[in-house]
């Protein structure tokens, strides 16, 4: 399979999976690379079909979370610097799907309290608003689900983008805008997310905006 036909068939790849593929292109001979694309395409199809067996909405979001957690568990031997209470990454713009927005919306509608004024304020930002670059230095960037102990208050239900994020570089590097950050990368996790995004009913957007719309 050629690179063009692969990209034409799989239009919802995550940015990092695309980069991973393009890096491989430089490393491999053409025939090995095209065989690799064929395998990747089959894996994307198979992951997509596995997810489609589960009803759309929260159950499908949770199935993706389960598959992603299984994959991350395979890399448990790779030590990360992420610890409970270091929450710089919870002051960044996080994208979620409409299925995940439904999960979070159901929690808030039941009994999970959040600061609605901050949610409203964050939801009015444009995509990649420059304020997000101020990270932890700007308190208005705090995710509405981050509790006073600096931990995620919906840990079991956190979106897939929060699950995939972990770093091997020092945690303090996450707190500055110029700190070098090394992310622990799992290509298979990106493959699962990309396969999930091929679902025609999936919409993706910033957490605050998606949740605020859900709560209206
Ligand atoms: S949902 Fe939880 S893990 Fe994700 S950014 Fe918010 S507080 Fe952090």
Structural descriptors:
single chain, 216 residues, mainly alpha, two-stranded antiparallel sheet, 9 helices, globular, binds iron/sulfur cluster
Count the strands?
Answer: 2
Task: Summarize model confidence as the mean pLDDT.
Answer: 95
**SSE order:** HHHHEHHHHEH
Radius of gyration: 18 Å
Span of the ends, CA to CA: 46 Å
Class based on secondary structure composition and strand pairing: mainly alpha
Low-confidence stretches: none
Described by the principal axes of the CA atoms, the overall outline is globular
Hetero compounds: iron/sulfur cluster
Strand content: under 5%
| Order of strands across the main sheet | 1-2
Largest beta-sheet details: 2 strands, antiparallel
Provide a count of the helices: 9
> What fraction, in percent, of the residue positions are helical?
40-55%
- Domain count: 1
Question: Your description of this structure?
Answer:
- This protein is mostly helical and 216 residues long.
- It has one domain.
- It is 49% helix and 3% strand.
- A two-stranded antiparallel sheet has the order 1-2.
- Helix 4 crosses helix 5.
- The longest helix has 23 residues, at 30-52.
- It is globular, with a radius of gyration of 18 Å.
- 26% of the residues are buried.
- The model has no long low-confidence stretch (mean pLDDT 95).
- Iron/sulfur cluster is lined by residues 90, 94, 143, 145-146, 152, 154, 158-159, 162.
